[in-house]
Amino acid sequence: MGHRCAGNCEKILSGQRTNVPNDGVVRLYRDRKGRGGKTVTLIAGVRGNPGALEELATTLKRLCGSGGGVKNGAIEIQGDHRERLAAKLADLGYRVKIAGG
Fold it and tell me: Which of 15, 21, 61, 90 has its CA 20 to 30 A from that of 77?
């Protein structure tokens, strides 16, 4: 079963990003594939060096009170925290879009 959307979008399958648009929008996804039924929030489209991504991931994990990390260039936060993360990222100056279901 594939993901379809109008225009250029990101597709996240089993934690791997493909077709990443370079439009400056940070996208938040909820994902459970390949994680034994556990839900994670994936944050894709954040530009920066690996150190900056790790620092942002640490800030967001503290905000949510949960674990996570950086994998394949995307930040993973354990649990469904899309709304809280979207508000924080917007406060930090990112353009944010909650994508997927």
Answer: 21
